[in-house]
Design a protein that fits this description.
- This protein has two domains: about 200 residues, Rossmann fold (3-Layer(aba) Sandwich); about 160 residues, Glycogen Phosphorylase B (Rossmann fold, 3-Layer(aba) Sandwich).
- It contains 17 helices and 13 strands.
- α1 packs across α16 and α10 crosses α14.
- The chain is elongated, with a radius of gyration of 24 Å.
Length: about 400
Amino acid sequence: MKLLVISQCYPMPDRSSGDLRFYQLLKILARDHEVRFCARSDLGWQESFFGEATIRKYEEGLTNAGIGIELDEPLAAIQNSVYDAVLFEFYHSAESLLDDVRFSRPEARVVVDSVDVAYDRLLSKARLTGIPADLDAANAVKRTELEIYAKADLVIAVTDDDKKLLLTESTALHIEVVPNIHEVPPLDDAALRSPNTLVFVGSFLHEPNIDAMLYFCNDVFPLIVQKVPNVRVKIIGSSPTPAIKDLARDGIEVIGFVPDVKPYLESSYVSIAPLRYGSGIKGKIGEAMAYGLPVVTTTIGIQGFGLTPSKDVLVSDTAEGFAQLTCDLLQDPALYQAIRSNGWSFIRERFTGEKIAKDVGGIFSRLSDIRPKRLALGKYLRRALPQQLNRHVLWRFKGMFGTGASGQ
């Protein structure tokens, strides 16, 4: 299968769990298919924000995985080559191009990877804030997002929960699930970890992570300190905002971006994920568990996993409860060992690359069985008629009168 992938920018797998999942998905697809990657117009932003050398590194990561780089703009890429399928990352990448795929490549299947259901994340934020403008924004995104999914041939969700949510809106949607993929090393010896160390990992380009750490450091951490005075928390993640940087104080270290989180996951004692809104599956939680870290999180944090609270993970939605559960892990060796072992086993059984690769192979092998949807007649005619007019009529006038160029 020849597959064109269109995304806003190059995936940055060391800076975002969503990007890591998408990058791993592309690597899996490149094993069996011809994959070409086309970035939209956000590369200028990416280069100015992260530097050209950094972006070349991400580009090389794609080419080293056997993925070709399409240098044309997305519309030209769609028009200039024949593809069996076009895969969009996020609904908004497809918003202005999906009809062009239908017109220029009517036999190509259109796949949209939701990554997470954006409107569900925004609705959860609106429930938290109670601000009418947040609810209006969420509903506006919902209308557009569902419209794009309805026009696609296949939607990829990241969790079964997201799939069920979308099917409640439209049972006509064809949805498959591709979750996060985790490297799962052997379970280590907890005695080698630094006692009383907490770690948070998350990109601060993602608003729920900003809210989570402001909430934790201001409302939860002081309660933990009362019971465990020498506790320390390391905050790791790219692009920390000024508000996040200002959290640094005694016991709180704002580290920011690190090229490799592995040393921090191997040395810390407890992972915290105090998320108060969000959607999809949380890469920070699965990654921590894969490295043998017990996790304290919220109801939002365990969305989509199927984890059992108090067995695989500890869960509380209040500051007092979150603080108490964190202290319990720091002070109760038996509880600590049970939660870390159960969480590690849970991830190893469900989220390894081998298992997910098999699932992805099945999904894309079935793609040819899906009949591509057609562009609505009115939209087709609005594109076709100007082309036919130019091809059969206007060219004669161009030849008759020339290009109209002046000598000035």
